[in-house]
Amino acid sequence: MNRIIPFNQHLNLLYRPRTWLQILLLGSLLAVGYALWPAANCALGACSVKDKWCSGDCSKQCSVAGFGLIPADTYNGRAPCRQSGPVCVQNFAPDVIGGNCNNATNCNVTELNPGTFNGENVYDRLYFAGGVRYFNVGACDSSCNFVMQANAKQATCCVGANVCTPNYAPPSVNIANVIIAPAHPLVLGQDPDRLGITISGIEASGGKDTTCAGGQQNITAITVSIRLADQTIAWINGPLAQRYPGARVLGSYPIRPTLTTTGLNTTSATTRFHFDPLDPGAYNVTITATQGDGKSTSVALPVPAYLLDSTITIP
After folding, report:
1. Is 69 in contact with 118 (CB distance < 8 Å)?
2. Is 32 helix (H, G, I), strand (E, B) or coil?
3. Residue 239 Cα to chain centre, angstroms
4. Which residue(s) pair with 301 in the sheet?
């Protein structure tokens, strides 16, 4: 037979110290369980698809990303790059572009807010490489000129993710396909057609990323410097001067020829140029390519200029 406990006896239980201790312990267990519930969910893989893309164990979360950049035009009264004495000052604007990740399967930035900044369409700064999206912050090159496609940052919405910082190799200069015309150039004073020397087929390529999932720097500048070789100067001032009294070095060096260059601010550029050799002998042509991160590579191209000579013999 069941025993019925009067209601007032239930109330009496609340006055027992042991009852309150049990309630306190139960509440503590519930609080701890609630706090550990998200971690337990993560351990069970119960986080969102986007968060799993950031980290398989749900230890990182996706949220809106933001970017700073060097504006392509005047901003707050300052140009993107300005010379201050020997220093080039970059007009960097921090945290001015917000990013959204609207793809349910990954955390790549798909939308910029605002899509324009300072009148510039900043979507032109986004690019894909190896399935990852990058944002070009911009940079100032060695001549203090603004380059938009430089200083790339991984455009991800992952909070706490290990963002890969690209490390670009130096640029390369290819002179394997160089054409020197004419094939046997004469010094200008002996050339009846005054052809001089034209050099074409110089190719420069930006360095590729060696640490992240692809990417390549743009070539921002190509320069050429021409000098007369030291051994040629010694030959002109020595044996040639003895044979032809009064012979001397006629040209002023270095020569900085005018270049015709295509492909600047892209990953590959080519150039050609012309110069008139006043002195016979060997010329050292130094070609330097510079990319968006400021790294440069120089190669030397030997170019000859011939002297018509004759030997008079007495019978």
Report:
1. no
2. helix
3. 51
4. 285
